[in-house]
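User: I'll paste a sequence; please echo it back and then give the predicted structure.

Assistant: Echoing your sequence first, then the prediction.
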Amino acid sequence: MAKYGRRTANLVSIAPMIVGWFCIIFASNITVLLIARFLQGLAMGMSATLGPVLIGEYTSPNNRGAFLTTISLTIATGVLIVHTLGSYLVWQTAALVIACITFVDFLIVLYSPESPSWLADQGRYEESEKVFRWLRGEGEEEELHRMIETSMVVRESKTDANISQSFSKSLKGQLAYIKTTIKKREFYKPIFIMIHIYTLGQWAGANILAAYTIDIFNNVIGNEANVSLMVITLDAQRIISNSVAVYVIKKVKRRTMLFITVGINLFAFIATAGYTYAKDHNMLPFDHPSIGIALIHIHMFSIATGTVPLPFIIAGEVFPLEYRSLAGGFSVLFLSSNLFITVKTVPYLFRNVGIHGAYLIYAVVVAYCLVISWWFLPETKDRTLQEIEDEFRGRPMSPEELKSTQSLTSLKYMNKDRRCSSPVI
């Protein structure tokens, strides 16, 4: 993503997904299925970083939140499509349909432009301007100008470091560079925040509800529930809630949205734990399946409107351009590892501490991550990526840092029939 571009990396991430689906279509034994799932997991791991970064760089601050929310909306749509196909088609036929959808994704990326931020980072400023204006029109020239100025500063600093210390050839120089980088606030603070946001998103229960739907329905509602109908109903509610979130995220601040939806999530966890505990110990004065159904749907509402879309939104906004690939890739390790831990420990927890005990554990982890977010997560709504980066740095780039590129920038924009303003420091 950093070296070859967002678009190239996106194409590379889709390729193993397509191969994985065709392995499933032609699978004749469990080994081939495992290979297919490994390839698809590889693709998912790459796209988890790529998606938020690319959308964040493509879109205007005013619309960025809504566009990033569509990630969770498409996930919910995909879950519904897969469950529906699996209910009515043979699994090989279902895999073929999904492989075709994935191939359409490949074509969309193939004919999409490269990220203007990456082009600027590579010194391809004219291409960056062209793509930026194609994506957003000509009403955001100030952000474009600041992005190019900052990229010039970063490129100059890298060039000076390479000349003076031979960082590109010296192991000692590389270690010194890494040591300097990890001490920068704009590098470690976003990573620290996203580690907790990704952890919150996974422990909030989205993948648990998706992977252990039958177990949860049986524990909360009972065996008399029509599980197939409940699964489709829950998936439909998830899509509706995601659609609502796309609209609401344009009106409500990120922090406010996070605290409200996670608060509802904690209520759902604690209420479900209390309800199932009382039900198992015959402590309920009154019981009806609708109580359990309502609790599960409240839980899904909190997931679909907040704990699934918000990590992707925040990930698309907080990482600085210079370290976006490295920091994003490192942070998403915690998404994958927490997904693995939560999904794989569900049978053990349900068996040993019951669903009520498991849900209380999830609530504690989510509450801890929410406290960390309260203290460290800045508000990012309607702010440019450069403004967010400056806040993490603790200051905007100083006049001295921009001075070296000021003449280059002025010369670049001189004698061009454009409506962009002169550089502003």
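Residues 251 and 330 are 31 Å apart (CA to CA). Residues 163-168, 401-425 have pLDDT under 50 and may be disordered.
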